[in-house]
Structures are given as structure tokens and as C-alpha cells.
Amino acid sequence: MGSVARSLREVLKDLKEWSKRQFGNMLKAIERLRSQLTDLQLAGADHAQVREKMNQLDELLYREEMLWLQRSRITWLKEDGVNDTAIVLIPKVPHLKDLKDYRPISLCNSAFIPGRLISDNSIIAFECIHHIQSVRNNATGLCAYKLDLSKAYDGVDWLFLEKALAKWGFSPIWIARVMACVSSVKYSAAREDGLSGVKISRGAPEKDLRAPPPHLLAWTFGVRFFPADAGGPPQRAAVPREATLWAPTWMRTPAKPSRAQPCINAVAGAFSENLPVICIVGGPNSNDYGSNRILHHTIGIPDFTQELRCFQNVTCYQAVVNNLEDAHEQIDTAISTALKESKPVYISISCNLPSIPHPTFSRHPVPFFLSPKLSNQMTLEAAVETAAAFLNKSVKPVLVGGPKMRVAKACEAFVELADACGYPVAAMPSAKGLVPEHHSRFIGTYWGAVSTPFCAEIVESADAYLFAGPIFNDYSSVGYSLLLKKEKAIIVQPDRVVIGNGPAFGCVLMKDFLHALGTRLKKNTAAYDNYSRIFVPQGEPLSSAPGEPLRVNVLFKHVQKMLSGNSAVIAETGDSWFNCQKLKLPEGCGYEFQMQYGSIGWSVGATLGYAQAAKDKRVISFIGDGSFQVTAQEVSTMLRWEQNNIIFLINNGGYTIEVEIHDGPYNIIKNWNYTGVVEAFHNGEGKCYTAKVRTEEELKKAIEASLGPNKDSLCFIEVIVHKDDTSKELLEWGSRVSAANSRPPNPQ
User: Fold this and answer.
1) CA-CA distance, 397 to 392, in Å (whole number)?
2) 219: number of Cβ within 10 Å
3) What mean pLDDT do residues 380-387 have?
């Protein structure tokens, strides 16, 4: 064994020297190229020089990414080629009719490795068995297993294997690595035009989806092979491949040439919010591609890629399905990419394909195993150690939750950290609903100058603050006016941690970091003690006099009493942002608003989607009159699906938020009879309740009717208020954002 160890050390030394000669210092090379690229751009160099440097930089960044993937071990297995095996099918009979007429030979067999013989495997197996038999006192418990590949995979369910390893006490990291090895195997079969990929997946039982899968291999539709003697025509081995991850009924839905353009705005919003939306559209007839024809629902040119190019900027993957041979692969890849990246994907299917039967889509889909992302353990340990030292030496540290905690699935880990450290807990505005407001040390929303009272004072006076998943844009920073210092901050993103002005740690998952950090921090309640000393409870708005016009703050006083764990709040872009931020969410109450993309009219469609998905909650939405006019037709769909949402339409005669940012006549809109519009949608079909309120008394009656006799109905309450009735937060926020927008150009 000593000689083996010495040899391994020599090999490691040679590999390090080779890597240094071949690649040099990767980080220094990247920094050098970035500096050269900046110099070229500042000097106004021609496009070809800049492009050449950018290509070189892209290559180095790819090498760096591969380096981290290899260090993370488990993710590396998902890269193409790492866990692949090539197979050649050799005919066993003269006349080929089915796949069983071939003999598969794996090219990873020792016969295909230089310096090895095919007999090596047999000799090694014989020596192992001989050794076991020759040991008289087998105290070490030696044994041998003879495994057949297909039988092993047929007989063991992957989920069972994973749970069995966990039951036996194996480390979660080891389990994840084993499952990645199992699930990432790919066989490639030689055919006339190269290699045809075949991934190991699971065939679905025909009757009971919970029963163990009946067999292993799922081939791509049917793979064409040349016989070994090349004397006859190519034969097709028709082995059905079960679809994974997607419902075959989608392909049987009648489709028309694409009308996807109207939904691109919604897809862009989902991209900004890290939501895995699957956008499925009907494409041109497969025979029209390359025909130079002009079709309807296009911009009038024979180029059918214009829609695809539009979606490329707002989706992480695009699949154009215009033949059945690769339909399953494209669709599987699109959906798995959406789940892994938590971003929208675009799938276009030619309109003449859905009605065509195909063996691939003849069975039920089966679950697709996506190996979990894992932190690099060495980097994680270093990040936690550095962060703990940074926070433990501080006097008044605080925690602030951000919107990216959702995509990182780190909300529970954040709460665990808050419980362990004793710091006060705040939430950024776009993270409202992600941080539990019933937490004993929750101090409100941190939003700079428009924060919850006393929250900004505590956060900005702290000597250390940890932001989990933040997004600092002009809206969330109130026109870039936050009083934060970078050297005091720990910024935790879904897969990266930055401490002060450095260092930065990559390949560290947020939930792993927060969970581990909670075990290293000392209890420190100094900042929360300061908050307790200065906190003064807010009072309630005064009740209106009889017949007095309704005020917005009175409206939200009554809305607060409506909320429970069985409700969810949707806030439209505008003054509803600020009024809904003041609501205290009970445990279990949902909350959504779109701050990053800020699409006007977003909340109407969001109300429809949320209510359709969360059947156990009653959605309460707050929508401005201008926003409602953009997407009002979605109320018709709510009625069709018998939803019982409560919509408060705040009618103040225009786009109030835009007035505060940049006023002008374009912010004034034509007034509608909004309750009349909804009643027209209702048209006597289904359950619908509408009310138009101008006073507090009328508001109380409308709310009682919505929660009482009309609890199963769609309730639409139009609240008429004065055009200048806005929150003080909107006035402050609008003036600061307006100032940021009005900055003069820098001197050229």
C-alpha cells in the first residue's frame, strides 16, 4: 500500500504541474482579461477586438464554472459526458425485426480501453470469489453480489433506494451523490448519423401510478440502426419511451398559430420574480417552416422566429417543436430547466402535431428526478466561520429578509437563524409574507425613508446587518437613498455570500449557510432592546362622521379586521403597495405584490391565478382604477371558475403613483362604471356581489355582506375616494424616485 500511496502523490504532483502549465492562475487571467476589455471599451476599440476579448473571457469563465462544478462533485455529474456510456448494437440474427435481435456492447467495457483486455473483468471477479472461498475464518464478513443491470434497475425503485439509504443512516451528502449517479446515467447508441442519446428513466405503470415501475430503459421514440453487414435497409427498433415530467394531454389540445405575444408581459414579470412558468403556445404548421410563406399572427414576414426572439430575453429555455421525433426531449428539457432555474420557459408546438398519436405519449408520465443542489462543504465552512466572526464582534446586529429567500427555499432557515441569534428581524417590502410577522422580534418593513416606524432607525444604526436574498433597485432603495454601508453588510444570495467589502464565497446555498450560521452565533438582543425602548404603538384612524366621504386609511382599518390565516392579500402597483405594507399579516396569511417588474394591471391576473391554485384561501385584492382598466377581462374568468375573491377597486380618478413620480395630463383616465362592468361580465350566471361605497357606513355593510351571505361569491367593492387621498409614504417615496429619475446626464 505504501507504493500505491507514493504513486498517487506523484500523480497528484504531476497533475498540479500540468494544470499550472496548461491553464495558469484562472482568477488572475480573468481579472487581466476584464481589465483589458474595459480599456478597449474606454478607448473606443472596434467591435472585432472587443468581441475577441469577450470570447476569451467567456471561455475562462466557463472553465472557472467547470472547476466549481467539479469541486461541488454532485452537480458535475449532471454535465454532459461525465456519466455517459456509448453502446453499439450488434445483430444476432440475419433478419432484424425487433430490439431483442441485437446484442448491446458497451464501449466502456475494458476491451475498449487501451492496455486492457476483455478478460480482465472475468479474472478480477474470479480472484475475488477465490479469495472469499479461501478465507477460513471470514471474520470480516466478506461477500460478493452478482448484479444484472436491467434486473437491478427494474427491481429497485429510485425513491425507495433514496429512503432506504436515509434509513440506514448514510449522510445526506452521500445519498445525494449516489442518487445523482443513478439518475444522471445516459447511454448513447451508435446509429447512421452519429449517437442517439438514451436516458435512464422510469416506465409508468398502466393502472396504479404508485406501484413500482415495471421496467427501466426508455428509448427515444424509436432509434434507427444500420445492420452490421450493411447489406439491408436500416431497421427501426420500436421501443416506446415514456414521457417524463409533462402531461400528454397537452399535446392533444387543439392549437392555433401562435397568439403568444399578449402574454409576453406576464412571462417577463415571472422572469423578474424567479417563477417557473411554462408558456405553451401553438406554432405554425410544421410544413410551413422554410416555405417562405406569410402567416397570420405574425409581423408579416416569412421569418417565423420573430416570436421566439422576443421570448429569448424573458425565458431561460426555448423549445420549438415542429416534429415528433424530438418532441419529448425538448419538452422534458424545457420543464426540467424551468424547475432547476426557477425561471419561465417557452414551448412552441406546431399546430398540426397535437392530434397525431405517437407511442411516446401513449402512457402516463412519470416523476422526473432532479438531483438537489448542494453547497461546496469547504466553502460553506469558510463562509460560516467568517460571517460568525464578523457578527459576533458586532454590538447591534440585525437581520433583514429579502425576496430571493423564496427561490432559495430558505424561509424556514431564516426563521431558525432569527430564533437562535436574538437579533431584531425586518423584511424588505418585496419580502412581505416571507418573514413571519408574528415573530417575537419582528420590527416591520425596512424600506428606507418609508419604512415601518422605528424600523429604519434600528437597521441603519446597526453596526452589522445580514440581508438574506435582497434586491436593491431604485424602487426598493427609494431612489437609491438607503443609509447603508457596504462594509457593515453581509449579503446572502441564493448561491453566494459576500461579507463586507470582501471576501465572497461562491457555491454556497442560502439555506445551508443560514442553518449552519445559526449554530455559531452568540445570542445578542442589544438592537432589539433599543427598538423596545423607542417603540411607540401606532394609533388607529379616527372614525368618519355620518355621511363623511370615505378615507383610504379608514378603508384599511376595516380590512385589517378581515385578515386571517385563511386569506391572502394581493397588492397592485400604486398606493396599494404602501397601504398593504402597513397591514399586520396573521400567521398563515399569504401576501403577493410585484415590485421588481411593477407591471400595471398585474394584480387582476395574479388574483385569478392565486385563487385557482390556493383553494384553501380567500384572496383579497386591492386594485387601482387605472390598473383595472388594463386587465379587467380576467374578472370574467374568475366568474367562470366560480372563485370567491374579494376585490377592492380604489377609484381615485387616475394613476396616483404616476402623478407622484411625474405628473401630466396622461395620468387622467376616463371613469368607468366599474360595478356595471363586473355585472356585465356576470350576466346572471354564477355567484357575484357588487357594491359601490362612498362612506364608512356603506363600507361596513359591503364587508359584512362579503363575509356573510356572499362568502361563496365573487365580491367586487368599488371604493370611491378623493383623488388626492394618498398615503404619506407614497408622497415621500414618489418625491425621492422622481428626484432619481430627474438626475441630469453626467458630463460627457
Assistant:
1) 9
2) 20
3) 96
* Secondary structure of residue 403 in the 3-state scheme: helix
Nearest-10 Cα torsion for 404, 736, 579, 570: -40
Q: Which three cell numbers stand for residue 235?
A: 431497421
Single pTM value for the model: 0.65
Whose cell is 475464518? That residue is: 137
Q: Are strands 84-91 and 102-106 parallel, antiparallel or unpaired?
A: antiparallel
Given a contact cutoff of 8 angstroms between Cβ atoms, the answer to whether 417 and 405 are in contact is no
pLDDT tens digits, one per residue of 457-498: 999 999 999 999 999 999 999 999 999 999 999 999 999 999
Q: What are phi and psi of 491, to 5 degrees?
A: -105, 115
Q: Cell numbers 437597521 label which residue?
A: 459
Cell for 92?
Answer: 444476432
Please enumerate, as own/partner, the contacts of 576-579 that have beta carbons within 8 Å and a separation of 24 or more: 576/603, 576/622, 576/623, 576/624, 576/650, 577/429, 577/657, 577/730, 578/450, 578/727, 578/729, 578/730, 578/733, 579/552, 579/553, 579/622, 579/727
At 522-571, the pLDDT tens digits run: 999 999 999 999 999 988 888 888 999 999 999 999 999 999 999 999 99
CA-to-CA distance for 239 and 695, rounded, in angstroms?
A: 70
The class of domain 254-353 in CATH terms is alpha beta
Task: State the number of CA atoms in the 13 A half-sphere of 474 facing the CB.
Answer: 14
CA–CA distance from 54 to each of 34, 60, 65 (Å)? 9, 10, 16
- Please tell me what DSSP assigns to residue 169: T
Q: Rounded to an integer, what distance in angstroms lies between the CA atom of residue 5 and that of residue 9?
A: 6
Q: Which cell numbers hold the place of 150?
A: 436491467
Average pLDDT, the chain: 81
Q: How far apart are CA 572 and CA 427, in angstroms?
A: 19
* Residues making up the chain, counted from first to last: 748
**Single-letter code of the amino acid located at 684:** G
Angle (CA) 272 275 281, round 5°: 95
3-state helix, strand, coil in the chain (%, to 5): 40, 15, 40
**Domain spanning 377-534 has what CATH number?**
3.40.50.1220
Assess if CATH 3.40.50.970 describes domain 552-735. yes
pLDDT score recorded for residue 476: 92
628 close to 649: Cβ distance less than 8 angstroms: yes
d(CA 572, CA 629): 13
